[in-house]
Design brief:
Blueprint lengths: L1 H48 L15 H10 L6 E5 L5 H8 L3 E6 L2 H13 L6 E5 L12 E5 L5 H11 L5 E5 L10 E3 L6 E5 L4 H15 L1
Parallel strand pairs: 1-2, 1-4, 2-3, 4-5
Antiparallel strand pairs: 5-7, 6-7
Keywords: Membrane, Methyltransferase, Mitochondrion, S-adenosyl-L-methionine, Transferase, Transmembrane, Transmembrane helix
Main location: mitochondrion
Subcellular location: Mitochondrion membrane
Length: about 220
């Protein structure tokens, strides 16, 4: 009996040690798996909330359903090309394409651009949409008749000047969330964060200046 007790006493700690080792291994595997998943989620999600435009801190904030409807209302009786500056996940571009526009989105965040292309394909409007990975300050918008902007107050004065220099007199600019500082809107719809301001560029001072320059050059 004494020898048997000693043998059992030797075997029990060994079995307990092996069980503890197995539990430790499983714990390490679970920890590694959870950690890897969190890193992957961070890598995918971070581009969706980091600034989309380089010069100004402009985080990605999806357009609400009311904002989209208000933009489409400002596009009634309009046609031709359309550009969404800082197009995010592409919902404005896709909605405009469904209304018959040849719609283009410019977005600095590559993850959002790829997601926008997928959404356009899923919704069956990929032939009428294009999405470019680009900084808006390095793009000319001179050939667009309809411009949609989801901006922040810090960028609006500089963007106002840029559009005034580039757009033709038949263009309409639609600002969402924040108006341009100097232009007087021709049309306004919505309330609160869903407010949308529309500017017909033929009425702006910049367009009148362009017309005067063309007239003086023709006369001379």
């Amino acid at each position: 009996p004494g020898a048997m007790s000693q043998a059992l006493a030797k075997e029990i700690p060994q079995e307990e040690g092996q069980g503890s080792s197995r539990r430790s291994s499983w714990g390490l595997l679970v920890t590694a798996g959870v950690g890897g998943t969190l890193v992957a989620l961070y890598a995918v999600a971070t581009p969706f909330v980091t600034p989309a435009l380089r010069k100004v801190c402009l985080p990605f904030v999806p357009a609400t359903a009311a904002q989209i409807q208000n933009v489409l209302k400002m596009l009634e009786n309009r046609s031709g090309s359309l550009v969404d500056i800082g197009s995010g996940d592409g919902r404005i571009v896709i909605a405009a394409a469904k209304k018959g526009f040849q719609a283009v989105g410019y977005e600095l965040n590559p993850w959002l651009v790829w997601y926008s292309r997928y959404r356009a394909w899923r919704d069956g409007v990929h032939q009428n949409t294009k999405f470019y990975i680009s900084d808006l300050w390095k793009v000319s918008f001179s050939h667009y008749r309809n411009v949609v902007v989801f901006g922040v107050p810090q960028m609006m004065p500089q963007l106002e000047k840029k559009l005034e220099e580039e757009l033709e007199c038949n263009a309409r600019i639609i600002a969402c969330r924040f108006p341009f500082p100097c232009w007087i809107p021709d049309h306004t719809t919505g309330e609160g964060i869903d407010t949308v301001w529309a500017y017909d560029f033929k009425c702006s001072r910049g367009c009148e200046a362009k017309s005067l320059e063309i007239t003086s050059e023709t006369e001379s």
